[in-house]
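Quick question, first post here. What does this chain look like in 3D?
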Amino acid sequence: MKNLVFILISFSLFFILSCCNKNVSKVKNEDLKVYQIEDVKLVSFPLDSTKNGKPLDAEMFFNRVFDYCYIDNIETLIIPINRDRLAFYDINSQKEYHSIKIAKNRDIINFSFVNKDSIFVFYDIDILNYDRYEPVYMHLIDYDGNGKVCEYYLDTLNFEENTDLRLPFVVDTDLQPTIINGNVFFTTQISNIGTIGSSDYLKKHFPLFAYYNPKTENIKFSKSINFPHIKENVFYNTYFRKIRYCLSSNNLPLLRFFYSSTLYEWDYINDKVSSHTLNSRVIDSIKPLPNENSLPQSLEAVYGSILYDKYNEMYYSFVHLNEVVYGNYYTLLILADKDFNYLGEMLNPNLGGNFEFYEDNIISYYYSNDSIHVSYQTLKKTDKPLQPYLDSIKGVLDNQIEKIKSNMPRIDKSGNENILHAYIKSKFPNIEKDYVLLTLYTNGSCPSCLINKNKRLIKIMKF
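> Answer (accepted):
Ran it through. Tokens below.
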């Protein structure tokens, strides 16, 4: 009898706790609000006429390489000038107050001001012919311009014979380099791996992520980081970056793979990986490609940059929607707290290019009309409930898909072409009785490619 009473009490407690948990979860979801990006100010001033040269992005469009920091209490913007020096601008006085010479014989990709003793500068290498040059493209300099070329040695111990080690470092121009305690983190040269999951891919092992220590001059590759969820007959590919990364709230590298809603945090000292889930509530999971030879454009979406705002303890994760599927360019921004709890999502946020977080501001820079522009924005939480906003986003995307479908019915090779004949008759009622139907199957083609194909057909054929 006592056992029966104990079981009944235990069951009752379990039921009550379960209900409480559900209510807590429900309240938490209902409490989610809409976030928005608001402009704070735009500081614009002419390039310092007493100095020579123009910023790097005057020559290289979308290459808005910069760093923002406070140096000796001076609010400072650092930008590359003339491909041969770093210029330090006092944003308040709007004048260049310091300059550091850098290598002239190479194009700068990016740089990072860590402190006055450590400024990392990354240079481009002609990948096809880089053996002709010294196999290094990173400099470590100080505030006075003293420095050294960073030589490196590959730590290849315990790697299998079928390992494909890819160099050089890969550093993005649109994101700040990831540096922890002097260690520089980077992906390997994986852009030309091709289709992940293909027979060629499965035959080899590709180290994907590594870090460089300037003191030991060693490059250590991770053996624990791999493309997730890949098995036989599961294929993914993209023209975007396959891996994006940032520093996590634990000051560790955090990786986002282009097709996975799972984030991977790398304990680089012990080469161990922990996982966290952060996915969009607007789109479903990203399905694999139909087959090994499918074009990357067949993916519905890809996950893009992952960023962490340490001042406000928030993650920013971008998702780029496929223009072919939705007929337009759309970007989603997912927001989460430092523990990866979902906070919200927005469509086409007013953010772009390279930007940095500082206190409550999101800082970005661009150069135009012989002037420097520094933009200050901030993220604001509104009182609007989130779910209706998410529903409205889904409505916009669903309408776009329906618009594409209604514009031209999809006819597969095995489909009934009478449907297409009927459609053409409805669009062109005066068409001649005797005509030939030319069908082009362009699944996965981008809209601009279709336009060019149309123009080409009009030139070579008479309709």
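The longest strand covers residues 371-385.
The chain has two domains: 35-385, 408-460.
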